[in-house]
Amino acid sequence: MRNRVEQLRREMGLNQEAFARAIRVSRQTVSSIETGKYNPSLELAFTISDFFGLPIEEIFIHERSSSDEKA
């Protein structure tokens, strides 16, 4: 899963620490989400979505592989 968290955060002029405080997680969590090492819980994804004022689908992009598609 790809995400636009880093791009959106930078567009708002926030560093990881400030963004993490705003959504009440650690800076390490923000870093892990941005690098794709961690997929946030649904609750955290909604928190991030609310923060940016965008639908989850515009922040977190699920890319299906051909093996994921149902016949």
Explain what you see:
This protein has 71 residues and is mainly alpha-helical. 48% of the residues lie in helices and 6% in strands. Helix 2 packs across helix 3. The mean pLDDT is 94. The chain has a two-stranded antiparallel sheet. The chain has four helices and two strands; from the N terminus they run βααααβ.
Secondary-structure topology with pairs:
Elements: E1 2-3, H1 5-11, H2 16-23, H3 27-34, H4 42-52, E2 60-61
Antiparallel strand pairs: 1-2
Helix pairs in contact: 2-3
What's this, in brief?
The protein contains four helices and two strands; from the N terminus they run βααααβ.
Give the fraction of residues assigned to helices: 40-55%
Distance between the termini: 22 Å
The Rg value, from CA coordinates, equals 13 Å
Structural class: mainly alpha
Number of H- or I-type helical stretches = 4
Major sheet: arrangement of strands: 1-2
Shape: globular
| Strand-residue proportion | 5-15%
Spans of at least 5 consecutive residues with low confidence: none
How many β-strand runs? 2
The major β-sheet equals: 2 strands, antiparallel
Mean pLDDT: 94
Q: What order do the helices and strands follow?
A: EHHHHE
Key structural traits:
71 residues; mainly alpha
